[in-house]
């Protein structure tokens, strides 16, 4: 009886805390949505119009028909997807080597890769600007994508190693006895069986690429090349207090694709992250 | 790429594919060209007097002496420590409490645990720039500022979230905790799930209360996880750049100018490449030290 009462009390506390936390995490995005749906006049009414009386989608239309915005979105998608593919091409063979070969200094290699993951991108951006100017890669998507790939590869290689580890070695060995080469083993056995891991690494990289700001901000100066992260920052600089509803709509448009991609594959992504990041 | 044809294939395979190096070549090339070289270059540049515009430079220690002697550096480091420290405390506390409640909720089948977890994760996926803009709309002291209009509605004094140099750093911490807590939650959740359940059974037999269980089992068992999480949060927070530049831009004055923003301003506002390189090397040094400590906690690569 007594312990049941305590459990009940515990439940009440849990619910109160959960509600507070829900408001903390969801509130800001709800506020963004609320502002994005308002007319110019309702913007000035603050919280009292949390649910707008005259909701409108004009702000979204106005942003999406803006001269630059569709270009920003397209560039953002292009850079994110291409860097996702690039990361897989670069990291998969390495993950295979880390998983299937035993060689001197293997753990040093892996720790080295992890160390790169820890270095602030800003550190490499400082010299990279001049370096890229010298290589002629400033203001090219190719140059930006290569930096995205370099930033994404360390984590991807670690996560993919975990995926390849989970494929039984006996499959490789059986295939090799049957006369398969290592490339064939990699291409026909390891790759098809690492589908879920590859998919989550791809999505993680694409979301990271979509959110990327610093690299394109410094390396791409032409408006027609800028991805969404930089675009929204430029857009913020052009707005004033009376056009907050437009900035809110633009911001929401940039956020929603990342959220949807994440929600669709939440379980897979979290599985990969916890397997790789926590268990080491 | 397709399966190599027989004659060429076997020869190629015997020579290359049996060794690890060819498999690592893409990583070595990409990391070497676009990561390692810049890292070495930033170290080299810190020993020069290079600017962002000119091409000539000479080697000197003057930039290092100048950068470390700068009267700004102390304030920048203090701001960074507040930002990192506040984020660590906030994210760890919220992370572990949410993880505990989610686990409790799953056990007792409470409504809403999945919703809470997903909501926290959604905040985590929001791009940094957008996150900064969202919080600016909440903290803003204009009529559309969410928090102040809420305070006004309940007849409380509005707060100068972003214009008071004593409050602004904490506002930035709040926005960072909002984005970062989900990561802590995931780490803590995995850690809590990893605790041997027989420990709790033994405690139950001994008649331990809930607080005793938390204090004598959960927290000691989670010590490594909490420490590792602290290192990871420190690194992430120190590297944070985009969500601050869109929230405060470093202001008011220089109240929220953390070390990453400072480096950016030195190089790309003042064109002082060597001075920025010195601070970059300082950041590099801090990151690598933390990464090294983190690596010591990782399990050794076991007999595979």
From TrEMBL, chain A:
It comes from the Bacteria. Coiled coil: none annotated. SUPFAM superfamilies: MetI-like. CDD domains: TM_PBP2. The keyword Transmembrane applies. Part of the ABC transporter complex MalEFGK involved in maltose/maltodextrin import. Probably responsible for the translocation of the substrate across the membrane. Belongs to the binding-protein-dependent transport system permease family. MalFG subfamily. This is Maltose/maltodextrin transport system permease protein MalG. It comes from Devosia rhodophyticola.
